[in-house]
Design a protein that fits this description.
The protein is α/β, with parallel strands linked by helices. It is built from nine helices and five strands.
Length: 191
């Protein structure tokens, strides 16, 4: 099974991806986690990506695609994967689809976690305090949500046309969201 998790910053993508991966025995691939590791390591990718992350902007497609190609291919040939944090634009989705299709590891189900903006901001503030992430300042938080609304939200229409798109309310308790996601995935897989 190959899943893509779409949601605004603070929507719970990382939390839900880990839970879904554990339930279905999938590899969880987080572009954000991979980028933060590269930034912390001071690699070429990390130095390039760091400038964009600090401003709340999207890291260039080629940088992210190069970083994700190996993990996605490996997981796609195994039990499958759940990818969170990429693609974030229709252009990225189209480019990723061409690469993944040629490797026979394309996404089968896209899952969108719907969370109201006020709740996203509350969660991002809580995360900033708990994790001390430098990219979670008020200005950057608002900018990241604006970027999501402008660039990432059109992915929903794209995936609704190309694959199965599941929309799940993500503003409920964590276990309730997980249960709903699993129920919806199982329903689609049974068709």
């Amino acid at each position: 099974m190959r899943l893509l998790l779409i949601g605004a910053p603070g929507s719970g993508k990382g939390t839900q991806a880990k839970r879904i991966a554990a339930h279905y025995h999938l590899t969880h691939i987080s572009s954000g986690d991979l980028l933060r590791k590269e930034i912390a390591a001071g690699s070429d990718i990390g130095r390039t990506a760091g400038r964009y992350v600090e401003a709340g902007d999207l890291v260039p497609d080629n940088v992210v695609m190069d970083m994700l190609r190996g993990p996605v291919e490996e997981a796609g040939r195994g039990n499958g994967y759940i990818l969170d944090g990429f693609p974030r634009t229709v252009a990225q989705a189209q480019a990723a689809y061409l690469v993944a299709r040629s490797l026979d590891v394309a996404v089968q189900i896209a899952l969108y976690l719907e969370v109201p903006r006020e709740e996203l901001l509350r969660r991002m503030h809580a995360r900033a305090g708990a994790q001390g992430r430098a990219d979670d300042t008020d200005e950057v938080m608002l900018h990241r949500l604006d970027v999501f609304d402008e660039l990432t939200a059109p992915l929903l229409e794209y995936y609704a046309r190309r694959e199965t798109l599941l929309c799940v309310p993500g503003d409920r308790p964590v276990q309730e969201v997980t249960d709903t996601v699993i129920k919806e995935i199982d329903r689609v897989r049974a068709i």
